[in-house]
Amino acid sequence: MKEKLTIDKLKAEAKAFCIAESKIKNKSLFGVTDGKAVGTHIEHKFQEQLNSKYKTIIGSSANGIDLPSEDILTDIKVTSIKQPQSSCPFKDAKQKIFGLGYNLLVFVYDKIDDPKTKTATLNFVSCSFISNERTGDYTTTYRLREMVKDKANVEDIVAYLNDKNIPADEITLTQLAKQILKTPPVQGYLTISNALQWRLQYQRIVTLDKPVQGISKVIDKVTKK
Q: pTM, whole model, 2 decimals?
């Protein structure tokens, strides 16, 4: 009988996975420069590890988030340390302010090819669990929180959202502004760029050197400057 997956067990499995995978010399990934192919390889391997040990729902990137069960609700992201970023589906403008609506588990690797053995090693330099409430855009949430403190009104907030090209019409922006004043957003820690899909950047998470509630550094081997 498989045991039920929890967030704590998910973090523990991610840590064990990073440590084990960093020691493997992988022939199939040698010379592969397509980050998506590397990411898919890692995601599937980690999902197989979870599926073999735990009772949980495994989703698919094509149909939504990777671990969609209500008590886990976590998407797995894999990215290179050279440019730690990925994309995610755009649902609505609120995601940039109030979070994506689910947690993120972000694996960051440094891929090293060895021409002598024709193998690739994926050295996992960072792995972070980011709770949903921290998945908003850093600068947008920071400024909006400041504006609320400074007694901004609906028109001020709408003007700011317009200035930042938040993808929504005037009615939606006004509704958003009222919601922001009523319930100010939690400080986010992603950089989210507007596009047909959200472009998520994780540099701030990777280099985070102070504890933040809602962000767990599962693996942290990044040299701080």
A: 0.93
Q: How far is CA 18 from CA 49, 69, 210, 219, in A?
A: 12, 23, 22, 8
- All structural domains of the chain, each given as residue ranges with its CATH number in brackets, are 3-85+101-135+192-220 (3.40.210), 138-182 (no CATH)
Q: What is the pLDDT of residues 107-148, one digit of tens each?
A: 999 999 999 999 999 999 999 999 999 999 999 999 999 999
Rounded CA-CA distance 165/105 in Å is: 28
Query: Coil, strand, or helix at residue 153?
Result: coil
In the beta sheet, which residues pair with residue 107?
78, 127
DSSP assignment letter at 164: T
What is the distance between the alpha carbons of residues 100 and 93, in angstroms, rounded to a whole number? 10
In angstroms, rounded to a whole number, what is the distance separating the alpha carbons of residues 63 and 42? Answer: 18
Q: How many CB atoms lie within 10 A of CB 34?
A: 9
